[in-house]
């Protein structure tokens, strides 16, 4: 049974909530273990089609809980520290690799690795009190959890370096203006669920393969080769046929799915 993470599924949506509101959902080692396990469960569950990641009490994740952090140099070897950091990075790694769309509902501070967890999701909804902060330099660290790779690809190198090198906040308004967030809402979790429901109305295989196909690291020819393979999978998918039939009959599609 998880102590730091709530994992709930309902109608094809998996909601993963970091549940440490007393410290603005900052994480400790146990949190990271549970978060990695929740993402593995969501990825492997055939009844899950969309993942919503958020924090308790309308927040998100304020990064590492400094009250739980050891004195790294005195209590850990370099190899032990590398193992710990790998597990934090693996949250980002799993979000990036997962074909199922993921939506970050950011209602409060998303700081440090918490910011990177939000950036690793496919889509972001922000609330009026949301901030995203790559504040590593302010405490004498580098963005070790993926932010230095993710942020330039999302908003461009120059603007990303401004935030990475100064550690200043990306406000909710700026996140929308930069295209970092797709929407702002007073209730970001509710809006994220609405967006998840929109995705559920579409052929699931096409959504997943489109999500995987968007890869800025691949060449155009690599894209085309993958697109051929993915398109054939979709052509032979029953949900494609149902979507075509529904379109021609001017009705909503009815997909045969088991959300249990």
From TrEMBL:
Chain segments annotated as coiled-coil in the UniProt record: none
Q: Does the keyword Acetylation apply?
A: no
Q: Which superkingdom heads the taxonomic lineage of this protein's source?
A: Archaea
Which GO molecular function terms does the record list?
Answer: isomerase activity
Keyword annotations for this protein? Isomerase
Name of one Pfam family that matches = ECH_1
The name under which this protein is listed is Enoyl-CoA hydratase/isomerase
């Amino acid at each position: 049974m998880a102590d730091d993470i709530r994992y709930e599924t309902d109608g094809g949506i998996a909601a993963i909530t970091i549940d440490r509101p007393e410290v603005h959902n900052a994480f400790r080692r146990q949190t990271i273990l549970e978060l990695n396990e929740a993402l593995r469960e969501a990825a492997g569950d055939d009844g899950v089609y969309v993942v919503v990641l958020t924090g308790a009490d309308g927040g998100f994740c304020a990064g590492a809980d400094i009250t739980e952090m050891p004195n790294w140099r005195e209590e850990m070897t370099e190899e032990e520290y590398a193992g710990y950091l790998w597990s934090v990075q693996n949250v980002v790694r799993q979000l990036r690799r997962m074909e199922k769309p993921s939506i970050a509902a950011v209602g409060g501070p998303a700081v440090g690795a918490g910011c990177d967890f939000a950036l690793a999701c496919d889509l972001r909804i922000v609330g009026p009190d949301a901030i995203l902060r790559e504040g590593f330099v302010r405490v004498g660290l580098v963005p070790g959890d993926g932010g230095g790779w993710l942020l330039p690809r999302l908003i461009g190198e120059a603007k990303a370096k401004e935030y990475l090198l100064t550690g200043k906040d990306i406000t909710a308004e700026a996140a929308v203006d930069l295209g970092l967030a797709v929407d702002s809402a007073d209730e970001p979790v509710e809006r994220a669920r609405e967006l998840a429901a929109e995705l559920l109305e579409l052929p699931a295989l096409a959504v997943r393969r489109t999500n995987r196909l968007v890869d800025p690291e691949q060449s155009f020819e690599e894209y085309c080769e993958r697109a051929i393979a993915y398109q054939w999978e979709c052509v032979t998918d029953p949900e494609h046929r149902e979507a075509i039939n529904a379109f021609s009959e001017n009705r909503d599609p009815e997909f045969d799915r088991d959300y249990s």
